[in-house]
Write a structure and sequence with these properties.
Elements lengths: L1 H15 L1 H38 L4 E6 L3 E2 L2 E2 L8 E2 H10 L3 E16 L2 E10 L3 H5 L3 E4 L4 H5 L4 E4 L1 H7 L9 E4 L2 E9 L14 E5 H9 L3 E2 L1 E6 L5 H15 L10 E5 H44 L1 H9 L4 H38 L7 H27 L3 H6 L2
Parallel strand pairs: 6-11, 8-10
Antiparallel strand pairs: 1-13, 1-14, 2-3, 4-12, 5-6, 5-9, 5-13, 7-10, 8-11, 9-10
Length: about 400
């Protein structure tokens, strides 16, 4: 019953100066709200990136041409034509844990249909590319190994290309001209959305890599090779074996750098996790600063309240209240201020992030654990910053307090 009595007195004291109470809570409301909104946006973005990584395929290993050092000059990915079709075939044949592989060549050109034209990305790939990427077809079928061997003029197109070039919604069997060469559309892909770099994955035309190399580009080298490991546990082993095989095939001396770059899906995930960890540390710092600012505001107001209510404290002590009762009373007021402010901050933060999602389309995910951390953090701020004013009030001399005007 004593606890409820303390709470009633605390509520009455806080209601006595409503504007001051609201302004005191405002620091915590803004701080906690900002943290919740930022965490929600950060988690939403992280979830979206993880989905994009998963959409890229399962247990994928990427081998790029280039990224080498030669004569003191550092090149980047695709800076040299160092990968050949034989490299891709040997990787599939000789690396035990490679399940599937797809040689790759790319370009970007203007393509045309009877309904219009569109500048898009052309990807020359092997027949297993969609299986590696786990990319389903909305209609039609993927070109076959026979199409690759015979340099066939067939194409599988993304949803964006289908919408831009075939206004009647029927792309299958239609002719698509790439650099004046007629290709027949044999399949339309299920939409995948944006990639990790923000590119439209559906703005693509996939053709046999042999057709891309011979009919469009007139080259014999590959830009990249995409392979799928048999399991996630085998990714590191596949990476090591691929590097060893390519160094042997390219006759690279032990003291020379690779003329290719190998990246695994696991490495990409780790980079995202590392960036997320950095963001979490940054958010923790922002949360700490915000709560400290709100806590200082609470301490300041509680000290003012102790001064204003000195005579009241003296009267309560005169009628039998102990120092611990006074301490508990003022500490309860401080904790109430901080917890109510924290709760309102959570509501405004979550509501604001949802409004931002509605207005901008940015993904938002408010984690329950951060909501609990924010609320408990607010309570701790009230205890920490409210203790000194409460202790000061409990140590007042009753006689001096009664004389205070």
């Amino acid at each position: 019953m004593k606890i409820f009595s303390i709470l009633r007195v605390a509520a009455r004291a806080l209601r006595r100066n409503k504007l001051r109470t609201i302004l005191t809570m405002l620091g915590l409301i803004i701080g906690v709200g900002a943290v919740i909104a930022t965490v929600s946006l950060g988690n939403g973005a992280k979830t979206q990136v993880e989905q994009q990584i998963a959409a890229f395929g399962e247990n994928v290993v990427l081998i790029f041409a280039g990224s080498f050092t030669q004569g003191g000059a550092h090149g980047g990915w695709n800076s040299a034509g160092t990968l050949m079709v034989e490299d891709a075939l040997d990787i599939e044949r000789q690396v035990p844990n490679v399940k599937l592989g797809s040689p790759e060549q790319r370009t970007s050109v203007q393509v045309a249909s009877s309904d219009g034209n569109w500048f898009t990305n052309i990807q020359g790939e092997g027949e297993d590319y969609l299986d590696i990427r786990q990319w389903a077809l909305a209609e039609g079928a993927m070109f076959t190994g026979a199409d690759v061997r015979t340099v066939a003029k067939v194409a599988v197109i993304g949803k964006t290309v289908a919408d831009k070039l075939y206004t009647d919604g029927d792309a299958l069997g239609k002719v698509l001209r790439i650099k004046g060469v007629p290709f027949v559309v044999v399949g339309v892909l299920v939409p995948k959305g944006l990639s990790l770099r923000g590119d439209d994955q559906d703005d693509v035309v996939i053709i046999p890599y042999t057709s891309c190399m011979k009919r469009l580009l007139g080259v014999t080298n590959l830009r990249a090779i995409t392979v799928q490991a048999s399991s996630r546990a085998a990714l590191a082993e596949v990476e090591r074996e691929v590097i060893a095989l390519l160094r042997q095939r390219h006759r690279i001396a032990p003291d020379h750098d690779d003329d290719f770059t190998v990246r695994t899906q696991e490495e990409i995930t780790q980079m995202v996790d590392k960036a997320s960890a950095t963001m979490r540390v940054l958010l923790a710092g922002v949360a700490l600063i915000s709560l400290m600012v709100g806590g200082i505001g609470i301490m300041n107001i509680m000290l003012v309240s102790v001064t204003e209510r000195t005579r009241e404290i003296g009267i309560r002590m005169a009628v039998g209240a102990h120092g611990k009762d006074i301490l508990m009373q003022f500490l309860t007021e401080a904790v109430t201020l901080s917890m109510v402010g924290g709760a309102l901050g959570i509501v405004f933060g979550a509501g604001g992030s949802k409004l931002l999602e509605f207005k901008t389309g940015w993904p938002v995910l408010t984690p329950l654990d951060w909501v609990c951390y924010a609320f408990l953090g607010s309570a701790m701020v009230g205890i920490f910053f409210g203790f000194y004013p409460a202790w000061k009030a409990s140590k007042l001399d009753p006689i001096e307090a009664l004389r205070y005007e």
